[in-house]
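Issue 218. Parser rejects a valid record. Input:
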Amino acid sequence: MGLLRIVISRLLAILMFGEGLVCAVAALVAHGGRVSARADILTHFAPFWLAGALVVVGYALLLAPKTLRTVFLTVGGVGVMAAGALVLPELIRPMTPRAPAGAPNQLKLVQFNVWGRNADLAQTAQWIVDQDADIVVIEEASPAVRDAILLRRAYHVVCGDCQVMIFSKLKPLDSGAPASPPGLPRPPIAQGTYRNAGGQFTVLGAHYTWPTQGSLQQQQGRRLAWVLDHYSKDAMILAGDFNSTPWSFSRRREDQLFGLERRTKALFSWPAGEVSDRRIKVPFPFLPIDHVYAGKQWRTVSVKRGPALGSDHFPVIVTLARTP
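Output the parser choked on:
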């Protein structure tokens, strides 16, 4: 038993050192995302680097041999500081004070990537309709998705044959995004302008490519920012699957570039259930990649994540109140 204990202890030490080294190096390289789209890919997994490094620190304090404690504390500590520096700005990000639940001129919005391989389109469509939302922004939409929703409720639809669709109770005054500027690829975008008791407002939906196509994703961001500049931002709402987390440098740059406040804060929305053609099950979401932005005339009433449906994304439900 003594020999077995020694072997297990050494194997655990090797495992912990390897984990700490991987987390520390990955978190440090991720900071290169300030200048490199490839390095920025690592930022999306910052919570994993942070959690792994914290485990190593815990091991150093509780189980590590005294002669190696400093080594493990150093490796784990570097990982904690490097990864924490990526995650912390989102957690402490100041936000406009929320409006009370009974605030007037409220608007309810559902943001949802329904997934092209949705396992239960009927249930998904019924849930969307049951929310009684004023605006529904859908990504990976299709004629089948559109028809399943309209079968259950007579919404107005913007871009009804597009990958991104906007469903609304209000009839749009205007729709259609401006053409792409030269040299910038266009992400799927839908736009609708509406008027309610609070006044006129514009809603845009967008869907970015994966961060593994980092340079293309950044170009899409610049293209979307160009589109946003063609509308009044005071009462604007922007929602979509941006395929980037709030601890990425690309998302931070766009938070500044868009001139809108992101109302979702570290809201983990992917994955929900199956995440691949091999039907790999994941017990919890670990990437916050679905976001909702709004202009300064909107105050947030509530932000919450919806249930797991037939998609690999969770829906996001945001209620806003229009202020003078």
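Fixed in the parser; the record now loads. The chain has a mean pLDDT of 94.
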